User: Which sequence fits this backbone?
């Protein structure tokens, strides 16, 4: 039984009051922000001198942040909190980069601010010191070659891998044979990324964790599907085909009642696996999606061989039906133990579930049912979602890429609905993990639920268990991706409530112990460069043999990751609007003051 003397909300408010700061008037905030940006710019100019004279490299196992990095954090979050500046930044960068003499200055500014804040390094090998530093701090890594479709080129006509305005070279591991195909380059580099992740884990040799075989590994790899084919519009075409095919579903079927983008079915892949035709796809579209699925299958096979987990990132709703279908097919194929294998990592493939989508509770319930029915391990990355303003705007515009047939937009209109949705799914997943742990330990014969079990649970009806075989390896794995303090606190609370962790004191806030059977199935993730104090708070309260918290660390040359940096800035604009920007700036400023003045 939980023994918290304070209510959960009260505890978070008392410990972190800045997150509940309502903020001054827009005029006051505007004047204050201009002053902070100007001051931060002056600090940046002198940070090299300060860092060299005041900060000495720590001999501790876990090095603390340098003054230079603290100043950078202060400056970056000051700029991210100015909406008009964020919105205009692509045009500003383009204009400045076209002026001789300003181009190099612009590149240097982006590299030493946003790039260094949110990107690990230019190449996979160059990120290794960061990976070691994070592991020394008891943090794992979700590793990603972060090349994305540009926001302004979301139709997929081209992938913004390079620009006339930036001169960085692509990864040195891409062969000359791949130079004419950006999508093939990305596939090649992703395979290399898996090798680097596996070699890094092998090099640890229990230095920072009691890793046995492939268990306890905490260097995973994320993939962005739209970057892996020459024309991302083919994914929209496949998604349109999938949505059209659902019109034939019986209205009484579970899938028919799930809001757009719906719930994936294996039949969604018929155009790929069974050579079916569709008026929604051209021969070129079919060729593209078939090659994409083959490339993803090659990546997953290599990951399974190396014992590296693959996280399939979510994207805009017009891509998502196709991505969901491919992820389902890959899970069914690769999220099963190899014959006669010992210490097999499961699940290998994780799909991303976005809680700002109205469909998510029912979609997740159906996914749990499908994994149990077809005997594969379900991998879930649970997030709120990154494209909310774009989704609302696209749904209301007739000329947009939206393919939703629903009257309501696919996303919740209010953030409070997304928050409720996320927390509801946290509880659903904690319950599913509990059942899986009990089944693996032989404490329960619950092999699944009846046909309506998990969907009924979402709707408030008690699930009816059925007898099944005891699982030898995890049949579910969950990565909770969140920068929300309340959600992190809820996750810890649910672990304790379900018997997946035990309190290390009289209260949850005193810390909890998480056993190997749980940490093999559950992790919390945050983006590199964001909410490090939240990350440290969770790490300090979890006792486990392997890292429980994972940081998403992208890498790539500056020209390659510009779309990623643009999206990060846009996301930060919305995330930091409720007092979080003030909190991040204050945290950096207070640490700088402490270092300089003692």
Assistant:
């Amino acid at each position: 039984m939980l023994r918290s003397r304070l209510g959960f909300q009260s505890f978070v408010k008392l410990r972190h009051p800045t997150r509940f700061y309502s903020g001054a008037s827009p005029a006051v905030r505007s004047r204050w922000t201009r002053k902070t940006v100007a001051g931060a710019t002056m600090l940046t100019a002198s940070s090299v001198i300060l860092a060299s004279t005041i900060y000495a490299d720590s001999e501790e196992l876990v090095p603390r942040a340098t003054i230079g990095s603290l100043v950078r954090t202060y400056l970056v979050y000051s700029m991210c909190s100015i909406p008009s500046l964020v919105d205009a930044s692509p045009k500003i960068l383009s204009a400045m980069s076209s002026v001789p003499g300003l181009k190099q200055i612009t590149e240097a500014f982006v590299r030493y601010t946003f790039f260094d804040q949110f990107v690990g390094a230019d190449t996979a090998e160059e990120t290794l010191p960061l990976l070691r530093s994070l592991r020394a701090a008891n943090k794992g890594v979700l590793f990603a070659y972060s090349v994305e479709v540009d926001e302004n080129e979301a139709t997929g006509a081209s992938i913004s891998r390079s620009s006339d305005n930036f001169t960085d070279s692509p990864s040195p591991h891409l062969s000359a044979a791949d130079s004419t195909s950006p999508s093939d380059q990305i596939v090649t580099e992703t395979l290399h990324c898996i090798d680097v992740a596996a070699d890094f884990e092998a090099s640890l040799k229990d230095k920072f964790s009691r890793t046995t075989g492939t268990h306890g590994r905490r260097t995973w790899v994320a993939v962005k599907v739209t970057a892996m084919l020459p024309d991302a519009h083919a994914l929209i075409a496949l998604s349109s085909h999938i949505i059209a095919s659902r019109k034939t579903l019986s209205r009484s079927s579970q899938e028919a009642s799930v809001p757009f983008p719906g719930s994936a079915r294996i039949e969604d892949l018929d155009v790929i696996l069974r050579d079916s035709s569709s008026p929604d796809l051209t021969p070129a579209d079919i060729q593209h999606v078939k090659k994409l699925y083959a490339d993803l299958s090659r990546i997953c096979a290599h990951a399974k061989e190396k014992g590296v987990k693959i996280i399939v990132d979510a994207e805009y709703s017009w891509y998502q039906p196709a991505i969901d279908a491919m992820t389902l097919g890959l899970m069914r194929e690769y999220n099963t133990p190899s014959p006669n294998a010992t210490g097999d990592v499961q699940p290998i493939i994780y799909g991303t579930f976005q809680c700002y989508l109205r469909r998510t509770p029912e979609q997740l319930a159906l996914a749990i049912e499908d994994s149990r029915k077809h005997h594969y391990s379900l991998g879930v990355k649970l997030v709120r979602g990154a494209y909310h303003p774009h989704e609302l705007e696209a749904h209301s515009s007739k000329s947009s890429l939206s393919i939703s047939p629903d009257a309501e937009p696919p996303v919740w209109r209010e953030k409070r609905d997304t928050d409720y949705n996320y927390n509801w799914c946290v509880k659903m997943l904690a319950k599913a993990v509990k059942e899986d742990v009990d089944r693996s330990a032989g404490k329960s014969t619950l092999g699944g639920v009846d046909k309506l079990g998990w969907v009924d649970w979402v709707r408030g009806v008690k699930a009816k268990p059925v007898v099944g075989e005891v699982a030898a390896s995890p049949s579910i794995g969950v990565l909770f991706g969140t920068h929300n303090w309340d959600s992190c606190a809820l996750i810890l609370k649910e672990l304790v409530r379900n018997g997946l962790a035990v309190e290390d004191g009289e209260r949850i806030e005193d810390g909890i112990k998480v056993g190997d059977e749980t940490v093999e199935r559950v992790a919390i993730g945050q983006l590199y460069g964001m909410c490090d104090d939240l990350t440290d708070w969770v790490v300090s309260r979890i006792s486990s043999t392997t890292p429980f918290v994972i940081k998403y660390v992208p890498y790539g040359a500056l020209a390659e990751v510009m779309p990623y940096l643009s999206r990060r800035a846009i996301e930060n604009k919305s995330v930091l609007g409720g007092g979080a920007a003030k909190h991040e700036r204050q945290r950096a400023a207070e640490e700088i003051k402490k270092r300089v003045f003692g």
User: Anything to note?
Assistant: The longest strand covers residues 139-145.
